[in-house]
Specification:
By secondary structure, the chain is of the alpha/beta class. It has twelve helices and 14 strands. It has a ten-stranded mixed sheet, with helices on both faces. The protein is globular and about 50 Å long. The structure holds 3-isopropylmalic acid and manganese (II) ion (MN). The site of 3-isopropylmalic acid (IPM) has 5 residues, from α4. Manganese (II) ion binds next to α9.
Length: 354
């Protein structure tokens, strides 16, 4: 069966790293006999420039006609003067998440052994490295809650969660924990926010269906601290939208570089949007020096979650690990004595190792 993929490269380094991910997918297609059909569509700032809006109807149609979306990154200084809701992030990425009901955002923060030295944390703190899965709720909370008002003197967002929304994301987290070390930390701010009181109560209730999972609750401020103090205590982290956003950046940086981490955003039918957790990095765009690994690993997650090709996803991850083991590095993860390569070479090296 042909696997239809909407390719939305977006802005900044998006197109550069996407080219490498597509190369890798073509390679696995040949090796594992998978047939892909890639359809490119404009999104973000480039779409604003060409079509007058960040998420044109044609792009949405392409996505609707596909099995998955491979997404690069959007945004940049060029579009920052537009009204907030027309900017690439709020005009394209958030509507895409909402439109496809992509409520389950999976962000694995795993450190590749050769990169332990790139982490800002001390070796003693890292121990054997870290392997955390952040499950972030992606279609609720203050990002989408109504009313949302931006006035000249007063502005507000509404942080709202229904029990149903909490139940469905909690189940994803418990299921993930069952497949890993059966340890789940749920993040909230139940000491201050009503929505988070409901969050804690509901997670507790869902937990009764998973007696094998060891569940604990942690306030988000404490979690931010614990992540740098003792990251190894975490296995699966469950968080609402904004807390998950913040903690996943923090977790990402302790793995060595933001340029390494992929993500999957899934709905109930396993339709997914796959994107690196980093942004469009306009400061280095066009130089061919960006790290394509997060985009390549995002393609791997697409194979695993939407296309049920876990073995092929593993082959991609192994090829990345091998390339790093052999000492190849892009600038963001460069260490003394290693071989500095550009975006294209990194993509080629990974491709050849599959
Ligand atoms: C992310 C990003 C987005 C978010 C932005 C670009 C809207 O930071 O995917 O983590 O806040 O969700
Ligand atoms: Mn973020």
């Amino acid at each position: 069966m042909t696997k239809k993929v909407a390719v939305l490269s977006g802005d900044g380094i998006g197109p550069e790293i996407m080219a490498e991910a597509l190369k890798v997918l073509e390679r696995v297609g040949v090796k594992y006999n998978l047939k892909f059909e890639f359809t490119e569509a404009d999104v973000g700032g480039v779409a604003i420039d060409k079509h007058g809006k960040a998420l044109p109807e044609g792009t949405l149609k392409t996505c609707e006609g596909s099995d998955a979306i491979l997404f690069g990154a959007v945004g940049g200084p060029k579009w920052e003067k537009l009204p907030p809701e027309q900017q690439p992030e709020r005009g394209a990425l958030l509507p895409l998440r909402k439109h496809f009901d992509l409520y389950a955002n999976l962000r694995p923060a795993k450190i590749f052994k050769p990169l332990i030295g790139s982490s800002p944390l001390k070796k003693e703190i890292l121990g054997d490295g870290i392997d955390i899965l952040i499950v972030r709720e992606l279609t609720g909370g203050a990002y989408f809650g109504q009313p949302k008002v931006l006035g000249a003197e007063k502005a507000f967002d509404t942080m709202v969660y229904t029990k149903k929304e909490i139940v469905r994301i909690a189940k994803i987290a418990f299921e993930a924990a069952m497949k890993r070390s059966r340890k789940l930390t749920s993040i909230d701010k139940a000491n201050v926010l009503s929505s988070m009181v409901l969050w804690r109560r509901t997670v507790e209730e869902v937990g009764k269906q998973y007696p094998q999972v060891q569940l604990n609750h942690m306030y988000v401020d404490n979690a931010a601290q614990q992540l740098v103090k003792w990251p190894a205590q975490f296995d699966v982290i469950l968080a609402e939208n904004m807390f998950g956003d913040i903690l996943s950046d923090e977790a990402a940086i302790i793995t060595g570089s933001l340029g390494m981490l992929p993500s999957a955003s899934l709905n109930e039918k396993n339709f997914g949007l796959y994107e690196p957790i980093h942004g469009s990095a306009p400061d280095i765009a066009g130089n061919g020096i960006a790290n394509p690994i997060a985009q390549i690993l995002s393609a791997g997650m697409m194979l695993e979650y939407t296309f049920s090709q876990g073995k092929v996803a593993q082959a991609i991850e192994d090829a990345v690990a091998k390339t790093l083991d052999e000492g190849y590095r892009t600038g963001d993860i460069m260490q003394e004595g290693m071989k500095l390569v550009k975006t294209k070479e990194m993509g080629d090296l990974i491709k050849e190792r599959i």
